[in-house]
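Contributing new records

If you add data, match the layout below exactly. Sequence lines come first and carry their own label; structure lines follow with theirs. Keep one chain per record. Anything else will be rejected by the validation script.
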Amino acid sequence: MIEPTGSPGLTLIAQQDGSPAGPEIRPRRWVSVLAWLTVAPFAIWAVLRLVPADVHFRWVQLVGFTPYAALASVVGPIVALVSRRWTALAASLVVTAALAACVLPRATASDAAGGGPSLRILSSNLMIGAVPPPALVDLVRRLHPDVLTLQELTPAAAAGLDEAGIGALLPYKVDRSRPGTGGSGIYTRFPVTPGQAIDIGGFGQARAVVTAPDGKPVEIVSVHPCAPRYQDRYQCWADGLAALPSPAGSRRVLAGDFNATLDHARVRHLLDEGYSDAADVTGNGLTTTWPYQPWHFNGFGIPTVTLDHVMVSSGVAVRDFSVHTVPATDHRAVFAELGLTAG
């Protein structure tokens, strides 16, 4: 005979002789709920990350933290394993594997670039011209870039760079400086032909064609769409990225503050079109560039992410990549040594 004990989840089982054998513990439903609640947020994140579009303004703000979500997602398999919920364990392993597949390849270097003349690119966001010009000129002397792209270049900062001697190192320039955050510029060691700037929402992205060491042209863009910090800037950000030139037909280098990571669909579209990210190619794709200084949003500290990139089209190979600290800005400068393989 079976008699209830009065305790939830417990039942007394009678032995064949009629004496009670003790309680049988039924599966605890709350444990299953906990296991699935641990898996669910990461599953949703993985699905949204795999969608080939930036599905919502808030998602644009979140998706840049996918490397952190991938790392945190290992909690799901651990909870499922400890609680012996095998279906939840299988699901959580699939989710973690999907997120890992999105981010781990960035830590693996591709084959080294072949021969051809070198082109060295340095890019820095000046934080509304706050970077001391002598500090930036010293970095140029140390790294010997052939091309320097700048974002948030103000007229005062441009004048300060001239006074600090940038012209002796990089004598040719395209100055699209303006007050505030929307200015940009390109300084180069080689002759340059200014192009039509991409100007959307008050953010000017300077363009120029540089005569490279092999005598053939390379188009350079100092990338800086507006930041999607607020919803009314979302379209400006999206349009600024969409306006970047296609990699087809010419050798091109996009260098600057994209205000986006490799997890944003619009940046993934650039890669699908044929651009290569220098950090990704060299296995440095998880190296973060912003915010270098403490930065808060709605009272919360922001984990560092990778907003600054050097991207190259076909005909331009990547040999090396590094990031460098520049004073008085919340961005780290990015530097890439490129190889010109075709034109």
